[in-house]
Amino acid sequence: MIDLNIKEIEGHIVGEYTRQPNQVVDKTTLGMALYNEIDGIIPIGVNDDVTTISYDLTDTVTLDEYFGDNVKRKQMLNALNDMAGSLLQCEKYLINTSYIVLDTSKVYVNKTTKKAYILVLPIKDAVQPVDTVNFFKQVLFAPLDPDDENEYVSKLMTSLNPRVYSLEGFKKEIEELLGEKPKEDTNDDWDAEGKSIVEYAKARLEAVKAELKEIEDKEKAVHEEAEAKAKAKEEARKAEEEARAKEEARKAEEEAKAKEEARKAEEEAKTEEAEKEVVEETVEEVVEEKETAKAEETVTETATEEKTEEIADVEEVKAFLVREVIETDIEEGTEEKVEQEIPISKNGYVIGSSENADLVIDETEVFPEHARITMKNDEYFIKDLGSATGTFMNGADISQMDDEFPVINGSKIRIGQQEFKFVIK
């Protein structure tokens, strides 16, 4: 609904619409309304910069006020006839219905002539779109005079059926109900030479057949359009189901692959642990057997030193997160990809977007404390710390796992848009 500021100017009642700065004027429609005396349209006026559009509403009332609480048959038919005629005039002058205010509170009736007029507001997107069928139905829902013969309403409602509706046909029906002879029917009368009743009946029958054929064609077109839409909808549904099935299969394959890699990593870890225990047991046996002899003590010391060096080597093993970065040589003006090694400097290494994280990733997808890497018994594990975007290991999302997930040498870890390779040296 549009708002008009009603005021009195030099003895005239004027309704003004104030255009907002972001609203665009349709200059073609404005020109048509300004420079043509279009029958059934309230005259329009504008100021120099078209910020105010005014309408002369002197000696008029709104259609709602004109109808009141008891609409007479002739009142209704005359108002509908005027408005239908106004809309046909708008079509003649190429005025789009999106600029016509189809609202009973903004249709005005001259108090003297009883003629109804409509408003044209040439501002883009200012008028709430209402199709003419629904507008005329809304008008017909006004309170009718119970003493009148109101069967005309059902006839007009039939004319407003979207399958057969046309503005010209609707106006013709109104004119027939008013007792006026529609202009397009003048050729149906018997001509000066006098046609026979049979000839006239045949002509009318052919006209009715043509109308029925037109209705059948429209219904067929509507049916075909509905079938085409249903077919397109079904094809879209099938395509969506196929895409969903493929995506689920891909995810299942990735999860199975991740589980298999995790199982292999666990088996390798167990094998390494078993081998370590065997070595430790062998060292202990050698120490016990060689305690009584000096030569054996030397051997034992040598073995112990070797074992100590081995243990030291284990303690010196460090893990790194390796990612590709681009280095720019300003002097040469070249760029190249290089691997950046980020040492995992402590047990409980936290990755996140917080400045307090051990590795800071400044991305919106990364949570303040997104994931943590820990070391237990010379093995490394990673755990998602409750992020909503997930932590991915070799393509699999491990955020739903309650336990820590083992990480082996060469594993690929992705957090946010950053991808790392886990390396043990």
Mean pLDDT: 84
Integer-rounded radius of gyration = 43 Å
Number of helices, counting only DSSP H or I runs of 4 residues or more: 8
Query: Strand portion, in percent?
Result: 15-25%
- The N- to C-terminal Cα distance equals 74 Å
Specify the helix fraction band: 40-55%
| Class by alpha and beta content | alpha+beta
Describe the 3D structure:
By secondary structure, the chain is α+β, with helices and mostly antiparallel strands. Helices cover 42% and strands 21% of the residues. It is built from 8 helices and 20 strands. The chain has helices at residues 27-35, 63-67, 73-92, 132-140, 151-159, 167-178, 197-289, 294-316, and strands at residues 5-9, 12-18, 44-46, 52-56, 60-62, 100-101, 108-110, 116-117, 119-120, 319-329, 334-343, 349-352, 359-360, 371-376, 379-384, 391-393, 396-397, 405-407, 412-415, 418-424. The strands form 5 sheets. It has a 6-stranded antiparallel β-sheet. Helix 3 (73-92) packs antiparallel against helix 6. The longest helix is centred in the middle third of the chain and has 93 residues, at 197-289. The model is unreliable at 182-195 and 303-315 (pLDDT under 50).
List keywords for this structure.
alpha+beta, 8 helices, 21% strand, elongated, 20 strands, six-stranded antiparallel sheet, single chain, five-stranded mixed sheet, 425 residues
Summarize the structure.
The chain has 425 residues and is α+β, with helices and mostly antiparallel strands. It has helices spanning 27-35, 63-67, 73-92, 132-140, 151-159, 167-178, 197-289, 294-316; strands at residues 5-9, 12-18, 44-46, 52-56, 60-62, 100-101, 108-110, 116-117, 119-120, 319-329, 334-343, 349-352, 359-360, 371-376, 379-384, 391-393, 396-397, 405-407, 412-415, 418-424. Helix 3 runs antiparallel to helix 6.
